[in-house]
Specification:
The chain is mostly helical. The chain contains 16 helices and six strands.
Length: 368
């Protein structure tokens, strides 16, 4: 493994602020900025991969249209019928997971050159999800990149309260079943965003769309959208990426008592078939190293910089990730790397706003 990839060090004597705190506490910078610099130095041509992917907007249009068609076809089906539930799980959840990750992609300005056009298509992609969230997602997500693992800023991190109460097989099963609600509600308890005109546009567009759906297709059509969104973040194969990306697996192998300097991986990649439905989000080390490279060119980045990624941890199955997360006593909500805010400043590795996506401005409201 390249020296640039082993930047996270855990000191067991200092690893927890209290006896109840079992997170992996680190006092070094996150690894992605350092590895990015090393890759650019070794392969400067990777920067040519940055920029927009025109295909994204057409995929979004197709998936939104598919969801509206399914909602129309199911408008007279009983909610608890086999056809309704299976369509929501197989088609709807996969489609809405695709839209979640389209919004993720668009949050980095990778669909259009114009930032305003990216904000507009994100609101459009939000429509079949049923609940407005694209405007709020962007600053929280860019902060996740800029302040990976920073306690009180990275809203992808579970809180100590969640980890304490869900530290059991039943608790982890509950978390996996309802994880979409944790990801939706947790950010508001970590830090609050300023309410901007973009948030207002997102809310107005979403509720207007919902009202039109109910008026012309009925309540069951809207229920299909909401159920699809819930299932997309529940016990669904594609939902495995939420856990697979940053949870530490194999805890006992990482913290042997005799070792006081243990590199702990903060990000895991997945190179399997489900990337086809999810904008290559499985290439997560690659994405965090170069947020301005679109989904379609992440495999090219991996090939160019293969020596940097070959030894990094990876998952073979997102379904297997969910199964292991629930049943493995060594894996749970405590298995995340955390750092205090100062940790991101070690070595001068602070992310600049313009590195977090294509055509970024000087500042983004809510990004910390």
């Amino acid at each position: 493994m390249s020296a640039a990839t082993a930047t996270t060090t855990i000191k067991p004597a200092e690893a927890a602020t209290t006896e109840q705190d079992k997170f992996f506490w680190t006092y070094t910078e996150e690894p992605h900025k350092t590895r990015r610099q090393a890759i650019v130095k070794a392969h400067p041509e990777v920067l040519k991969l940055c920029g927009t992917e025109p295909l994204t907007k057409y995929i979004v249009l197709g998936v939104v249209s598919l969801q509206i068609l399914c909602a129309a076809l199911l408008r007279n089906s009983p909610f608890c019928s086999t056809s309704f539930l299976l369509t929501a799980y197989i088609v709807g959840a996969t489609a809405n997971q695709n839209l979640f990750l389209a919004i993720h992609e668009i949050s980095h300005n990778l669909a259009f050159k114009s930032p305003l056009a990216n904000r507009a298509i994100a609101i459009f992609a939000n429509l079949p999800i049923g609940i407005p969230y694209s405007a709020a997602f962007r600053p929280y997500h860019l902060t996740h990149h800029k302040s990976l693992g920073v306690d009180g800023l990275d809203t992808d991190l579970p809180t100590a309260l969640e980890a304490f109460f869900l530290d059991s097989i039943l608790g982890k099963a509950f978390f996996c079943t309802f994880q979409i609600l944790f990801y939706a509600l947790r950010p508001m308890f970590v830090y609050k965003l300023p309410f901007t005109n973009l948030h207002l546009a997102n809310v107005v567009a979403q509720f207007a769309f919902d009202a039109l759906i109910v008026r012309y297709l009925g309540g069951k059509a809207l229920a299909y959208f909401i159920l699809s969104s819930f299932l997309a973040g529940s016990l669904h194969p594609c939902a495995g990426h939420f856990i697979a990306e940053h949870y530490v697996f194999g805890r006992s192998k990482l913290t042997p008592p005799e070792n006081t300097n243990v590199p702990v991986p903060e990000t895991y990649s997945y190179y399997g078939a489900l990337n086809f439905f999810t904008y290559n989000v499985g290439l997560h080390n690659e994405h965090h190293d170069f947020p301005a490279i679109p989904w379609s060119r992440l495999p090219a980045l991996h090939e160019i910089a293969k020596s940097f990624y070959a030894d990094l941890p990876q998952h073979k199955s997102w379904t297997g990730v969910i199964w292991q997360f629930i049943w493995d006593k060594e894996v749970g909500l405590w298995c995340r790397v955390k750092r205090k805010e100062g940790g991101r400043k070690v070595g001068g590795g602070i992310w600049q706003i313009e590195e977090l996506g294509a055509n970024e401005g000087k500042s983004i409201p809510g990004v910390k």
